[in-house]
Design brief:
The protein is mostly helical and about 160 residues long. Helices cover about 80% and strands about 0% of the residues. α2 packs across α5. It starts with a helix and ends with a helix.
């Protein structure tokens, strides 16, 4: 892993990020915008599936999914660029590792949500309570993405 981190640190991309006083602040701004898009839309989606505002139609709530994906892509891109700016610091940082674990678990949770909905739609009779499963998955999503934010904020301090 050390070789990859050393390569990243010496790359032209790292030099561009570290060598220009405007690049890192611009990346931080984009990362924050991505965070707003991701978390704002996920709050609407997950809170609806948890049971808040049950009168809002699900198809209207699901319209926020593309916004979530856009926010995630922005954060993934800027996050990779942050990693290039100081790979040795990020790799050894406990908060960064916990953030990446939370992102991975949140992604697996989203896949679980999608698979569960597809299985419920395909099955006419189910012994499981789909509403409870959806509530658990949505609540877990809120917890995991909040963890991503908290651990991300801790990175500069650890």
């Amino acid at each position: 892993m050390g070789g990859i981190l050393t390569w990243m640190e010496g790359s032209t991309l790292a030099g561009m990020i570290v060598g220009n006083i405007w690049v890192f602040p611009a990346l931080e701004t984009l990362h924050f915008i991505g965070l707003i898009l991701l978390m704002g839309s996920l709050l609407i989606i997950d809170l609806r599936f948890v049971g808040f505002a049950p009168r809002i139609p699900l198809n209207a709530v699901q319209g926020f999914l593309p916004i979530s994906l856009l926010g995630f892509v922005i954060n993934l891109t800027t996050g990779i660029l942050f990693l290039f700016s100081d790979p040795l610091h990020y790799y050894s940082n406990l908060a960064f590792r916990l953030k990446m674990l939370a992102v991975l678990l949140a992604g697996l949770n989203a896949i679980w949500f999608k698979v569960s909905l597809n299985l419920e739609a395909a099955s006419t009779e189910s012994s499981r309570n789909p509403r409870m499963l959806v509530r658990v998955i949505a609540g877990l999503s809120l917890l995991l993405w909040t963890s991503v934010i908290v651990f991300g904020r801790m990175i500069p301090y650890l």
